[in-house]
Amino acid sequence: MKNIFELMKKCPLFDKMDDKELNVILKSPHTKIQDFSKNQTVISEGGSADAVGIILSGSVQIVRNDYFGNRSIIALIDSPQIFAEVFVFADINAMPVSVVSVTDSRIMLIKPKDILNDNPDLSSFHTKLTSNLLRIVTEKNLKLNEKIEIVSKRTTREKIMAFLMSQAKLNNSDNFTIPYDRQALADFLEVDRSAMSAEISKLRLEGIIESDRSKFRLIKKRG
Amino acid sequence: MKNIFELMKKCPLFDKMDDKELNVILKSPHTKIQDFSKNQTVISEGGSADAVGIILSGSVQIVRNDYFGNRSIIALIDSPQIFAEVFVFADINAMPVSVVSVTDSRIMLIKPKDILNDNPDLSSFHTKLTSNLLRIVTEKNLKLNEKIEIVSKRTTREKIMAFLMSQAKLNNSDNFTIPYDRQALADFLEVDRSAMSAEISKLRLEGIIESDRSKFRLIKKRG
DNA sequence: GCAAGTATGTTGTAAATCCAACAAACGGAG
DNA sequence: CTCCGTTTGTTGGATTTACAACATACTTGC
What we know:
2 copies of one chain form a homodimer. Chain A is of the alpha+beta class. Chain A has helices at about 5-10, 20-25, 85-90, 110-120, 125-150, 155-170, 180-190, 195-205, and strands at about 30-35, 40-45, 50-55, 60-65, 70-80, 80-85, 100, 105-110, 175, 210, 215-220. Chain A has a 4-stranded antiparallel beta sheet with strand order 1-8-3-6. Chain A has a 4-stranded antiparallel beta sheet with strand order 2-7-4-5. The interface of A and B includes residues 89, 144 and 153 of A. The structure holds a DNA duplex.
């Protein structure tokens, strides 16, 4: 097993914290570390929102499901990021979304409020936590904004292009591999898979993109 | 003119701050108060994201516009809330959205980073600001999640119903007035206005809702 | 009260999307 | 390598939505 301490130090939630503080978190009875297999549900929609998840290894999807089985993928979260923090700190009782493990993953679940209650002496801890959380939540806010920008496009084609351009920007290259298979991409873009697949084929035929499974390339127009 | 001080004290960004701190903000050369008329642009997409907006009176919409003139309303922000804080604190240079005044409004624009630089002595100020911001950004995060939940619905009818149910919850009543006219609602739900209007009529005919302009009522099914 | 402008509702047609079913390509297990 | 489950691509028909044009209702300023 990898050194949990080293993994924790990489996590933005624990930024600038010292070993003593990390130890308090790690040793707290309100902290547990759990392994999840591919496609396993980490937290169910409707479940209690009392623990923040820290991805030590692997990755998870934040999803919501319709009454008619339409899956909506809200976000993809990788190690060493965290999830569910917004619901915990906003005192939401029930999770409005589910969290599903995409790969095999190891996840630390902590109850920061309980930890703080048990350790009223750790005043610096609270300050650091607040400031780290602000940075994290701000960044998530930007990601949600980007997701809204993409799904706000009125046509499937525009959604695909908006998504691909954001990925190109993220990868600093017109050549990149996306972290979704076709069904997951459709669930992220909120469109039908087969229609999306057809539209991707059209874009390829029109010479706007190249694609092979999850690998994409944006073709620049000649000026 | 209303007492600015009183208005500031109502704003969650300044929660728990004392008069001295408020005065520093108010008197700073990095703070300005400006009046905007209905439909006037407060900040343009692409403009610099260096100032946080505080709505002293009135309300604004956060919007984005397509190349083909499709308006997308991302959020509606009322007094005494704030806007643009995410972009300022995430060090985004260019605003990815526009801010438009919905009614006549008075807005305070502050550059918190400059203020902090000018006043290195105000350490408590920084702590309070961070903790207030965390609460605000967390809450916005929840609102963005809700917006995503609504626009993720695949049909216009489902979008309308999801929106109306969230409004009913917000108002704690099945009788409520929505803050959008038809075009704005369509721009928020990311659908065509006339198609939406037709769908609302259908819902009315089917006895699922009652509506008169911006007033709606959800009809409970009899068990 | 009237006129002009704005907002909302209605309708028919064109276009886009969903859906279901299937074909083809791929990847792992044995 | 072959088999089999999974992923991706393709197609046609049903459904939904967008679009444009117009009718009606409401609002505001005079």
